[in-house]
Fold these 2 entries.
Entry 1:
Amino acid sequence: MGVDFDSVNKAFSKQSHHYDKDDEENIILQWMRKVVRGHVLNYLKKGDRILELNAGTGLDALYFSSRGHTVHATDLAEGMVSAINEKISKANAVQKLSCEQCSYTELNKIKQPPFNYVFSNFGGLNCIPDLMEVIKHLPLLLAPGAYVTFVVMPPVCPWEMSFMLRGNFKGAFRRFNKGGVKAHLEGEYFQTYYFTPSEVVKAFGKDFKKISLQGLASISPPPHNIKFQQKFPRAYSKLTKVDEKLSFVYPFNSWADHFILTMQYKGV
Ligand SMILES: C[S@@+](CC[C@H](N)C(=O)[O-])C[C@H]1O[C@@H](n2cnc3c(N)ncnc32)[C@H](O)[C@@H]1O
């Protein structure tokens, strides 16, 4: 697949040391996380077993386990896995929350199926060019009727495209690059890839049916534009209200900073 997993691991391991602080301080990220969790809670049932992919420092894993679900959190980056383990011992959550270093391209190594829910938040899946490398493992891990929610970055992000108005054509269309876009994180470089919702639905294939598609930050700015929120907090808050109203309607469900796609496994 040509993915530089080593650089991805190094970059996110370095980021793990300040990840939670950055997340907590960024009001845009807080709003986005709230919307994602609300979406997932629509489909989670009491006592469901969740497998989380690219779980980062385990913010969502801890949240869902504290609501009574059993969560197995996985991530490629050693630093992220250590951060999750710290949370497990601090919260004394060992009964409900477990953790394993595992790339989502190697889910055949996961030992505890069946799961009722697979969850991946905030573009972790944008680090590979072909999502079938992940999805091909899911039928072995899922109970019939299980849900899968992927939060993925699409090529069309209206806020970024507005850069065009300021003459920044490169920034406006950067996500359209067919071979992916080079990310620079914590002194490491690796390739990232953008997917339309229909490309992701197609990658799931005939064993899954599409349940819901929701846009996340179509009109309101993405997290890296936090200066807009800091300068114009009331305007920002109004934009998020518009986003919340339109997020299930085309094209706002597809043209956004991220989209939230939920699929259901039909089972065999
Ligand atoms: C932007 S962070 C999102 C983390 C978390 N889901 C959250 O909501 O905070 C992306 C995460 O994807 C992880 N990641 C990247 N490539 C991965 C892979 N091949 N397998 C598993 N995790 C991966 C990174 O280590 C990082 O923790």
Entry 2:
Amino acid sequence: MDKHTRAVFFDLDDTLYDQLLPFARAIKQESLDIGTNNIEEIFKSSRKASDLLWEEYKKGNLSLDGLRRERLIRSFREYGITLTRSQASGIQESYEKYQGEISLFPSVKKAVKLLKDNHIICGIITNGPVQHQKRKIEALKLSELISDEYIFVSDGIGFAKPDKNIFSYVSKRINIPANQSVYIGDSWENDVVPAYEAGWTPVWYNYRHRKGGTGKEPEIIDDYGRLISYLKEKIS
Ligand SMILES: [Mg+2]
């Protein structure tokens, strides 16, 4: 049996697949006049709203449906568009439908194969409700690539990013020290910062060119070609 001594984990949403695509399709479906506004900007704003509202959901002040509607209403409002509740529900419904039709970024398989060929544990740490995240994992056919025992969904384990304990929990479960573990994710606040705090090596997959915080200098990559070169260098 292989003795694993290192691990590389990925975030799911917007790291392994393009989360903007199902979102853009859902908006198109509602035939909203978004004027000259950029869907990507509205999308980024809805992700931010989602993170803010997540706390309220965790405290029980907001239902999951409420959160999903409210993040849309807030982000559209920021761009001068008023959404009715029913429009927000309509977008969310189509968004979920199209999330069942997502596909992996082109070079994900190549990256995972590289890691596995080098006896490195390869896994996923993702925030969200278990069923919802598993549905996307299924749509992406990720179980063909990544063993189920290395897929960690926040609601299933009781810790969620940006709580660094989620990383410490995974370290214990896989029995690999934090300083031998890499985490690749697209969010500065949810991925880079807590991975650092837990002693992991974060890689910021910043292909949407968001602004990061200060005080930390993660490896920054904006495409999978560069990620693969980085991993090859790490491995050698
Ligand atoms: Mg993400």
